[in-house]
Amino acid sequence: MFEKLGEILRKVTDKVANAIFLDKDLVDSIIKDLQRALIEADVNIMLVKQLSDKIRKIAVDERIKGIEKKEHILKILHDELENILGEYKQLKIKREKNQQNRIMLLGLYGSGKTTTIAKLGNYFAKRGQKVALVGLDTHRPAAPEQLKQLAEEHKISYFIDLFEKNPAKVWKKVKDKLKDYNLILIDTAGRHTLDKVLIAEIKALEKEIKPTEIILVIPADIGQAAKKQAQEFKEVTDISGVIITRMDSTAKGGGALTACAETKAPVYFIATGEKINDLEEFNPKSFLARLLGRGDLEALLEKIRSVTDEKSQKKIQTKISEGKLSLEDVIEQVKSMNSLGGFDKIKSMIPGFSKIKEKIPESVLENQETRISKWEHIIKSMTQHEKENPEILEKQTSRIQRIAKGAGVPTSEVRSLLKQYRLLNDMVKSGGNLEMSQGLSQKQLQKFARKFGKKLRF
Ligand SMILES: Nc1nc2c(ncn2[C@@H]2O[C@H](COP(=O)(O)OP(=O)(O)OP(=O)(O)O)[C@@H](O)[C@H]2O)c(=O)[nH]1
Ligand SMILES: [Mg+2]
Fold it and tell me: Which atom of ligand 1 is nearest to the CA of 271?
């Protein structure tokens, strides 16, 4: 139901974790992805804006640097998402003696009340509660029959009255029969709108039943409109929580969920299908963890630490600012890019590169591993002085031949490595300067694109 949102959130967190340079371009692209995904899930645009503003604020804060900045961004992202999903509140069933839990479900026409009553009955019966369903929808003729069928199918006790048209009277008739049950789930009638008749009926039932919980059932497909609906119901009665149904059949679930959080109506459960077991307790923390594909914030932060070895990052940064990388450094960079998901990642790591992604040919990404292992052999055949100053090799055919022989590769391979070194050194050097100068100019970008398009053949 939230596959796409989850996919994008994971992509965004990966981008943050894997970034070597966390510059304006990268932050912009992350925020754009996030916004698009959240708005697609129907999250209120104001909430989306708040979230983006907070991330941007951290991102441009000059006082926070490197890994710390990444941690801050991920923490903000995590906390804000958790925030907009609302507080966790469990639907507690009290078990004290003589304590009867009476849970009344309300909602507009077709919101899923009757189906949810059966699901809840089944859910709590399995957890050892003595459950009885009571049908107080006396308006729709087929309603008691629907409840009966569901109850019988799942072997749950039920009480209905096929003739009485006043729901409060039905309650009076059945309440004495409910003594042996500790959890009473009460189905009520729906209406097209929360009109006076419905309000009067709810009030009368509330007075008669004295429910321990009044739960509003909202279908996810109304999206953000859930806010208005929850507010209206809250005004006329003591809604203690919400159940959102039809999460499976709409892209607007994010809107319904976050709208309920805005009204401070805790979402107890979400329903994700028509079957009896398609009901799950809603816990914002674990819901978010699932979306992000990770256990919790700590696990998320761990990801950054695992891909960002701070020391080696610092070393590279220094070398970049000095404009000098050794061949081994370059190999290290390429290898780490590879382990982080391919050379493709260069685009998101180096400022400005995201803009030209379509111009870097896919062939660049091929056969890297074989190439890298050859390169490692080549480097092993070099002297320390050669490794640190590879430019001295450029015109020294005899040295190149010696190295090629030692590594068991043709001389063309050694030359190709030297060429890549030059290119990458150039690129990383420009990237290093860029961090300070906020991105490449269009001209520089085109130059890089041409260079990489033509020359970077792995
Ligand atoms: N896909 C999907 N369908 C659901 C879900 N919950 C309920 N439905 C379907 O929605 C329709 C209406 O459900 P009901 O339980 O009858 O809704 P209600 O609120 O009792 O309706 P009224 O009593 O007429 O007001 C039925 O066809 C259900 O099968 C859900 O989580 N997912
Ligand atoms: Mg119904």
Answer: 31
